[in-house]
Structure prediction request, 627 residues.
Amino acid sequence: MYNICLLFNKFSLIIFVCLVTCGHSFAQQELGIGGGFNMNTLIIRNESNKNVRTIPKLGYSIFFHSRFSLNKSFDLIFEPGISEKNYQRRSVDNQYIEETTTNKYLQLPINLDTKIFKSKTTTTYLTVGVTIGYWIRSNTRGYLPDIFSSFTSFENTEHYNLIYLNEKYAFDNKKDRRYDIAINLGFRERFHIRNTTLSINAFITKSIISQQNTYMLNQEMQSNQSITLQIAYSKKLKHHEDK
Amino acid sequence: MKINRWLIVYFLITTTTISCKKEQLINEDPKSFNEIYETFWREMNINYVYWDIDKTNWDNLYSTYKPLFNKLDINNENDIKSSVSYFKSITDKLIDSHYSISFQKQILKDSAIYPAYTKNIILKKIHNKYDFSNLVPQYLDTGYISSAYFYSENNIPKLLFTRLGTINKSILYFACNQFALSRTIQSKDPKTTSLLNKLDFYLNESTDIKGLIFDFRGNNGGDIVDLNYLIGKIIDRPVHFGYVRYKNGNNRLDYTPWINTTVAPQSTSKKFQYPIIALVDNYSASLSETFAMVIHTLPNGIIVGERTWGATGPIANNNIYNYGSFIIRGFMNVTMASGEFKYLDNKSYEEIGFPPDISAAFSLTSYQSGIDSQLQKAIDQIEK
Prediction:
């Protein structure tokens, strides 16, 4: 836990320094906070297991929102924060296996907003970018069959007792790749309210690297993919354009 | 402008959904040894549960044997026979002691591969397997019961031999050569059912019994339901004896979390207060090792005999959990553990076997003289 706090502090410091440094170079700057929800799933390439399927689960994100205007058409957005990306693995007959995995990431999405529509009160952007993440925690809850504790029913069918679990995952240095790089693609709608802005954005995030280090031949890539809906409220800090 | 926005949304949705579509593999008979080897190697990655502790360099074996299998012709009888020796070399160091390969082709009917057998018999040089059923009766009081139940599993005829009796009127003795006890109740086999009813009587109503010996020597396991059935008779609350985990993905180190393994008491059972001995030998394998470990966990439980075979992982039906044993259609059946097991002390006893609390090595001289020295040691332990 201490290590995670230390890491988060370092991460926040780096982001703060970056934002302050970048702030001087841009015509307009906004700072604010935001949050949202995502529906995430684990994409497993060429998965052949027909008994267990992956079900998307709801997660959340909270972040600092900072916007730097590059010119009239392009803005650069940094949204450092924490995101939870979850999924469930469940047996197809819904009988014996259910594992809901909760993954927490420290992440820095860097997006380029391209203005595609503007009215008096709103501006619409196409958002493209990358998210750099670090996997800080994982937890699994659900149930699994205890093969040793089985019994035969009156219909002569074998049944297994279910064991309920809720466990923090211990990362394996050989297997787990804790950094993540994902691409983002979506839209952002900004509502201008005096010198503040409310922005709503919906986008798809797809990890381009596996959650696992390569430790074997023909290894399957397992990566997160999520659809996210976020809202951010920010305040304009510089008004060079207005002048 | 609004139309343009919706066009972009449509483009995003269609491109991302198309990229998520997966291809289904069709399970057909392999047409070449290259195909068999590729399937075998991949299925082992997916299904084998001991990749975290097994020292076999599976990737290295892939590159070593791939050119060799490429040279084999699936229609050539000599090549088919050669493939067996390759599979034998590939699998000889795997630690799963349940691991075995049988072949579906008629010419390979007698070419089964069983690495644990080779390791235990040739490398560890354990003694031959002996039948103690002819020596035991002299230790039992008159009126003991023996039962033989014949049944078939996967078209293989099997025999369940059970024996129940008392020793010096105060020690209850129960032996079985494998675990299929619940089957006999389901099939209403009169003799075995009567024997098991008598066991219930001794455990629940007899006041003379001051000790219990479960003789699992030579017992190579069987139906897991028997664990709750038999141990459930002598406990009054669930007994946690270890941990199990399963594969949950196709990569070698994809595992579920460890979960507790427990034995549950039967609704009418009461705790057996007196010493309980599991009598085991080098041939006590699989479920009989689990029985020994559960008994070792009990405060009044003692293991007497020899280190067990070392096949501690459970085997479950594949429709419950799609990992473990697999079949390559038209060529081979591979049997292996469905889960990785470790005992309460967080150690895996796979391949090395579970050690006895009180060692009683097999003595051929005693056996040939008609003395069951291991059973005598168990009796002495209770009577001391």
